[in-house]
Design a protein that fits this description.
Strand content: 5-15%
Largest sheet: 2 strands, antiparallel
Oligomer: single chain
Order of helices and strands: HHEEHHEHHEHHHH
Shape: globular
Number of strands: 4
Structural class: mainly alpha
């Protein structure tokens, strides 16, 4: 990536994340109040993820699951109707509000608005070495190509006794394909395009937004997911 691109990207990330934090402050306060007084003791959830150049960092989220949930049942993989998800947590996850504290990760410099979603070390190692190298050359993102395509990722685990196998054999190769595509086509135009598509995807969760991919990539993606 060109140094000028990185500088502009960092300026955009700081400006947009700071503005978003100020605008969303009432939402933060309401969520914190509900979590604090609803009996769901945890307010924020911090988890170590693999970051830029494979440097670990802690990602911030609003708590949506039982305490110690990564060590219970399916671990890092969340299933549809997962019993570990708390009642209010279901609302936060459906609206993606649980991800908003990552605005502070962006302001801090651990993340960008657009990039590969930050992975736990176990999931990161499901990717082949070449894909790991490509992914680690980009800052993790609050949203990204794979985030849009796999915004309903839980459906791929339906009926599976071992979600790790599904992730390793289908989801990881598919996401690796998408992250390679993003890496090869990275630009400020694509940055804003993915940003606005994400907003539309939240507002229209059942709509297909694969059309921004080229035909060859869409066909390859379909073949991987068969």
């Amino acid at each position: 990536m060109k140094p000028t691109y990185n500088i502009i990207l960092r300026i955009l990330d700081i400006f947009i994340s700071a503005l978003a934090i100020l605008m969303l402050l009432p939402v933060f306060l309401v969520v914190i109040f509900i979590l604090r007084f609803s009996g769901e003791r945890n307010i924020f959830y911090l988890q170590e993820r693999v970051g830029f150049n494979m440097k670990p960092f802690f990602v911030f989220k609003f708590a949506t699951m039982l305490k110690n949930s990564p060590n219970i049942a399916t671990g890092a993989i969340t299933l549809r109707n997962d019993p570990r998800v708390l009642p209010f947590g279901k609302i936060l996850r459906k609206t993606k509000i649980n991800e908003l504290p990552q605005l502070f990760n962006i302001l801090k410099g651990d993340m960008s608005f657009v990039g590969p979603r930050p992975l736990m070390d176990k999931q990161f190692r499901f990717y082949d070495s070449e894909s790991q190298k490509i992914i680690s050359q980009m800052k993790p993102g609050l949203t990204g190509v794979a985030s849009i395509i796999f915004r309903d990722e839980e459906r791929y685990f339906n009926g599976s006794d071992n979600p790790d196998i599904i992730y390793r054999t289908k989801i990881a190769p598919a996401k690796a394909l998408l992250e390679r595509w993003f890496f090869e086509n990275m630009s400020l135009r694509l940055y804003f395009k993915i940003f606005f598509i994400t907003v539309m995807a939240v507002l229209s969760p059942h709509k297909n937004f694969n059309s921004f991919l080229d035909d060859e990539t869409r066909v390859e993606l379909e073949n991987v997911l068969r």
